Amino acid sequence: MEIKDYLKYDPTSKTGLRWIKDNRRARKGNEAFTGINSSGYYSGSFNYLKLSAHQVIMFLEYGKWSDYDTNVHHKDENKLNNNLNNLEFISRRNHNLIHSHIDWSPELKGKDLSKFII
Question: What is the pLDDT of residue 39?
Fold first, then answer.
C-alpha cells in the first residue's frame, strides 16, 4: 500500500491533499487529512500511521520525508497553509533559529527570514 497511490497534492483542498483512490474510511475525490493535531497541523492516518499533511505533501512532490536533520517549514508561519509555495525543506538548525527569533521578536513573524539563514 503506497501513499502516492492514494493521495495527491491538490491546492484547491484546504489541507492540500485529496484522495485519489477509495480506502477504508475515505472516498476518492474527498479532501484528505482534515483533522488538526495537538501541534496545530492538518493531520490524518494512512495505513495505520498518523501523519501531518505538510509532511505528506512534501513527500508526494519531492519523494522524500523530513528527518532528524531536515524539517518542513511553513514560510508564512501559518501551520494550516499547506500551499506548496509556502513549504520548504530546511535544516533543523535553521528551522530552530527561525522559530527562536520569531518567539522573542513578534515584528519578525511572517517576514522572509531566508537572508538571515546560514
Answer: 93
